[in-house]
Amino acid sequence: MNDSDFLTLLMRHQDGTLMPDELAALEAAMREDAGRRRLFAETQVRSMALHEHFRRDAFQRPGPPQRRARWFTRPVAAMAAMAAGLALGLFCASLVWAISAPRMTSERLFALMNGGFEESSLGRGFPRETGVWSGDEAAIREGRLEFLATGSDDADPSARAISCDVFQLVDLRPLRKSAGAGGDPMLELSARFADARAAGTNPSVTFFCQIYLFSGDPALMHQTWPRSIQEALASGSAQVTTLGRDAHGTRTLTARCLLPAEADFAVAQIVARPNLRPAKLEGLSADDVKLTLKTAPELPVRIVQR
Prior knowledge:
transmembrane helix, alpha+beta, transmembrane, membrane
């Protein structure tokens, strides 16, 4: 594999769009080349740090300037520490990458309910309790969530309806013991999306897979969503834009974020947004939504399901 092909696979890994054979090729390339392993690690750290920096910058409230000594927020400081650890480890002879032994252990979280959409229960509006799917107009048919119509937010019904959003609140408090078992815990929310329209169909549609972590009572979140996004302790997002069926088929997106110790619950959000409005939503669906806890996210790994 030449450098250009490696960089292409690396960027697609960041987007969560690698096929299994491409992931295997990426791992093989890193196994054979220490420089590529170093580039992979640096890219992962920069991606998380930039995402957190721009998220906080976008929602920054006007206020007195902070002292320079307090420039780093806690999540960014944690990422900087992780980057320093990686930089040190990369030059140590004793470094063992997780793509060899030992591998990172990850745990599929069953706190995310009905991720395969086997049950047809689906609420309307932002959810009031954990463990249920609820949101804009959608339907569960044959094990898939079908996006049917765009909708506005409960806390701001006068806002424009630009996307079809479906949510689930996830209680994270039972994870605190396992999250503290070692390493820097990371949550990954993944979902598989399909655009069954004919190839080249306009308008284009952007699918999103997003996760936000909060402290407090999840039953109150519906009162302030989406304004409360600015209060998130951490967040992750992945997206892809489609124009009907193409050679890629379904697209799997993975949103990642570090798991702070004070996080009480997560908002899992899957979205279909037509890029021309008004637009009728047809042939757009999602399935196989998973939440995974990684207990040592600083190294590239292949997930071990328990």
